[in-house]
Specification:
Elements: H1 3-9, H2 12-36, H3 41-65, H4 69-76, H5 78-111, H6 123-138, H7 141-169, H8 186-197, H9 206-220, H10 226-254, H11 266-281, H12 286-320, H13 331-351, H14 356-381, H15 395-421
Helix pairs in contact: 2-7, 2-8, 2-9, 2-10, 2-12, 3-9, 3-10, 3-14, 3-15, 4-5, 4-14, 5-6, 5-11, 5-12, 5-13, 5-14, 6-12, 6-13, 7-10, 7-12, 8-14, 8-15, 9-12, 11-12, 12-13, 14-15
C-alpha cells in the first residue's frame, strides 16, 4: 500500500474521530471519571467494542457499493428508509443543540463573548450556528477534511501529553470519609445509559461514515480498496476509543474523591475541563489547551451539521424526489437542510438555556434508545444479498455483531423498565 494511496484514502475515519471526541469524550467521559472514578470504565470499553461492527459496516458497505448506507436502507424496503428518516428528525435537533451548547461553552471560555451581550445569553450559541452553517454553505468537503485533520492532531497530542503526565503524578488524594456513589442506583444507571449513548458516537450517525466515504471517493476520483478504507476507519475509530479512556483517567485522577464537582453550566464545565490540563501541564499551557478544546468541539459541531445535512439531503432525495443516483442530488437541498437544522436546534437551545446537563443527557439517551434499530439494519446490509462475497465480514465480526445487538437492545429495554415500569 503506497503512501500516495493512503493520502487519497485518509479522511472519513479522521473526520469520524474528530466528531466523536466532542461531547462523548470531553463531557461524558470526564464526568464518568470525576463522579465514579474507574467504576464505569467497563461500560465505556463495552460500548466502544460492541458498537464497532455497525460503524465498520458503514465504511465496508460504502466501499463495496459506492453508495451510502442510506441508499442501502432503501434496498431493505420503504419501511427502513422511512424509519431512519423519522429517527433522524426526532433526534437531530436535540443532538445538534447539545453539540452547539458545548461548543459555545468552550468558545465563551476562550473569548469571553457572553459578557459583551449581557442581555442576550444565547449570543455564543447563535454565533456558533452562524459560523458553522456559513462555513458549510460556502466551503467544500476538502476544506472540512483538511481542517479536521489539523484540529484533531492538536488535541490528540495535547491529550496524550496530559494523560502520560497525569499517570506519572498519580491520583489526587481523596478527602477524609469520602463515600463513592453507588453504580446501581437509578440515577447512576440512567447516566450510564446516557454515557453509552454517544460512546464513541451515536449508532444512527454511522451513516455519516458512508456518506463521507462516498464524498471522499468523488472528491479524489480514487476508489480505494476495502483494506485501505478500513485502515482509515479503524485508525479514527480506535484513536477515539483510546482517548475516551484518557478522559476518564483525567476525571478519575484529578477530581474523583476530592469533594469537587464539575459545574452544570456549559461555560463553567469548559473551564473545569481546561483546568484539568493546566493543573498537570502548568498555567503556561492554558491558551494552547483552550484553543485546542474549542477547536475540537468546533470541528465536532461542523461535522455533526454536515452529517445531518447530508443525511437529510440523501433521504429526502430518495423519498420525495425519487433520485436513486447520488450524483443527482441538488445542493439546494443540502443548504436548506442546514438552515432547518440550525433554526430547529437553536430553538431547542433557547428552551434548554441554562440546563446544560439535562440537554446533554437527553440527547445521548435518545441516541441510545434508537441504536438497536440502526444496528440491525446495518448488519443486514453486509449480507450476501447486498454486497459481493469478497466484501463480506468474517465470522468473528458477525459474532461481535450479534453480541452488539443484544447489548444495545438489552440496555434500551432496561432503560424503559427503569423509567416507565419500575416506578
Amino acid at each position: 500500500m503506497s503512501w500516495e494511496k493512503v493520502k487519497k484514502t485518509l479522511g472519513p475515519g479522521i473526520l469520524f474521530a474528530s466528531t466523536a471526541i466532542g461531547v462523548s469524550h470531553l463531557i461524558q467521559s470526564t464526568r464518568a471519571g470525576a463522579n465514579f472514578g474507574f467504576g464505569l470504565l467497563i461500560f465505556i470499553i463495552a460500548a466502544n467494542v460492541l458498537k464497532y461492527p455497525f460503524f465498520e459496516f458503514s465504511a465496508r458497505y460504502a466501499n463495496a457499493t459506492g453508495q451510502s448506507l442510506i441508499d442501502g436502507y432503501k434496498k431493505l424496503g420503504n419501511y427502513a428508509i422511512w424509519l431512519y428518516f423519522i429517527i433522524t428528525l426526532c433526534s437531530m435537533f436535540f443532538v445538534s443543540a447539545a453539540v452547539v451548547m458545548v461548543t459555545a461553552g468552550f468558545m465563551d471560555n476562550l473569548f469571553g463573548l457572553s459578557g459583551l451581550w449581557n442581555n442576550f445569553s444565547l449570543f455564543p450559541v447563535a454565533l456558533v450556528f452562524l459560523v458553522s452553517v456559513g462555513i458549510l454553505i460556502s466551503g467544500k468537503f476538502n476544506l472540512l477534511d483538511s481542517l479536521i485533520k489539523i484540529i484533531g492532531m492538536t488535541l490528540l497530542i495535547s491529550t496524550l501529553v496530559v494523560f502520560v503526565m497525569t499517570l506519572m503524578k498519580g491520583p489526587t488524594e481523596p478527602i477524609a470519609n469520602f463515600k463513592p456513589p453507588g453504580i446501581f442506583e437509578d440515577s447512576s444507571l440512567l447516566f450510564i445509559i446516557a454515557l453509552m449513548g454517544w460512546m464513541p458516537i451515536a449508532v444512527d450517525m454511522s451513516t455519516w461514515v458512508s456518506l463521507w466515504t462516498v464524498e471522499k471517493i468523488k472528491s479524489t476520483n480514487y476508489h480505494p480498496s476495502l483494506k485501505e478504507s478500513l485502515l482509515d476507519f479503524n485508525l479514527g475509530y480506535w484513536i477515539s476509543a483510546f482517548l475516551s479512556i484518557c478522559f476518564v483517567t483525567l476525571g478519575a485522577y484529578l477530581i474523583y474523591g476530592t469533594g469537587k464537582s464539575l459545574p452544570t453550566g456549559s461555560v463553567g464545565f469548559a473551564d473545569s475541563v481546561i483546568q484539568l490540563y493546566t493543573s498537570t501541564m502548568g498555567n503556561w499551557s492554558y491558551l494552547i489547551i483552550a484553543t485546542a478544546s474549542f477547536s475540537i468541539m468546533f470541528g465536532t459541531c461542523i461535522g455533526a451539521f454536515d452529517g445531518y445535512a447530508r443525511t437529510l439531503h440523501r433521504t429526502t432525495a430518495i423519498l420525495f424526489r425519487g433520485i436513486e443516483n447520488q450524483e443527482n442530488g441538488s445542493r439546494k437541498i443540502y443548504i436548506i437542510s442546514l438552515i432547518i437544522l440550525a433554526i430547529g436546534s437553536f430553538m431547542v437551545n433557547a428552551f434548554f438555556s441554562g440546563q446544560f446537563k439535562i440537554l446533554i443527557d437527553l440527547a445521548t439517551t435518545i441516541s441510545f434508545l434508537i441504536a438497536p434499530l440502526v444496528a440491525i439494519a446495518n448488519f443486514k446490509l453486509v449480507g450476501k444479498k447486498y454486497i459481493s462475497q469478497s466484501f463480506l465480514p468474517g465470522r468473528l465480526m458477525r459474532l461481535l455483531s450479534y453480541l452488539g445487538i443484544i447489548f444495545l437492545t438489552g440496555f434500551a429495554l432496561f432503560y424503559i423498565y427503569v423509567m416507565f415500569i419500575k416506578n
